[in-house]
Design goal:
By secondary structure, the protein is of the alpha/beta class. Helices cover 42% and strands 17% of the residues. The structure holds flavin mononucleotide.
């Protein structure tokens, strides 16, 4: 079993990475494989609402988004990390998540459905809960199992060294890693007991509030 740790920061080994690494430690200690996925520094275009993913089953922009959704098919759980920019996730991460989750919802099998997920954020000072709120919305919309910790999943610092001094934040990451590993083991046990995934309804009702 494998958990993908997505680093949405332009800093490959910065604060967000430091938080993700602390969670990765306890995931590994519990016998689950981890893999980092860095979204990089290159510009990631936002969704252009062409809806072509409905027919192509992938995004028309063949970039890191398609690379990730392919990889996600074979992962069992996810932690998405982002630095806080103006009290939200950073812009590249938002473009990335919009396109990943919109195009993934057209894929068969769905790469995220009923898999555990968590968001973690890093900030110098403020805006963490607003950023977490928006990130968690992708998971809830995608029928994922949102995993928590003993506080909201945030660390504080402007440098990795500062983040390591945030003892509470580091503990929150370690607890999150253990909780993620535990949920994966529960899922595995359920599969061994032949507990099927819940039945999906074939037709999705979308009423747009007016009809
Ligand atoms: C454009 C920009 C906007 C930022 N906005 C915030 C903010 O709203 N609140 C905050 O506490 N820190 C803010 N920061 C600081 C980063 O969130 C913080 O340094 C973070 O830990 C960096 O993570 P990283 O090393 O993974 O990139 C901002 C930084 C940048 C570059």
């Amino acid at each position: 079993m494998k958990i993908l740790l997505v680093n949405g920061s332009p800093n490959q080994h910065g604060c967000t990475y430091t938080a993700l690494s602390e969670a990765a430690k306890t995931i590994s200690e519990n016998g689950i494989e981890t893999e980092f996925f860095w979204i990089g520094k290159k510009a990631i275009p936002g969704c252009i609402a062409c809806y072509k993913c409905a027919e192509k089953k992938r995004c028309v922009f063949d970039d890191i988004v398609n690379e990730f959704t392919e990889k996600a098919q074979n992962a069992d759980g996810f932690i998405f990390g982002s630095p806080v920019y103006y009290a939200g996730m950073n812009g590249s991460m938002m473009s990335f998540m919009d396109r990943v989750f919109f195009s993934a919802s057209r894929k068969e099998p769905h790469p995220f459905m009923l898999k555990p997920a968590a968001a973690v954020v890093s900030a110098r000072r403020a805006g963490t809960t607003a950023a977490l709120d928006s990130m968690n919305k992708y998971f809830l919309h995608g029928q994922m199992l949102v995993v928590g910790s003993r506080y909201w999943n945030m660390v504080h610092g402007n440098t990795p060294e500062e983040v390591k001094q945030d003892e509470e934040g580091m503990q929150v990451m370690r607890v999150l890693g253990r909780n993620m590993a535990w949920v994966l083991k529960l899922k595995e046990a359920g599969e061994k007991m032949n507990i099927p995934l819940p039945k999906q309804e074939d037709i999705r009702i979308a009423t747009n509030f007016i009809r």
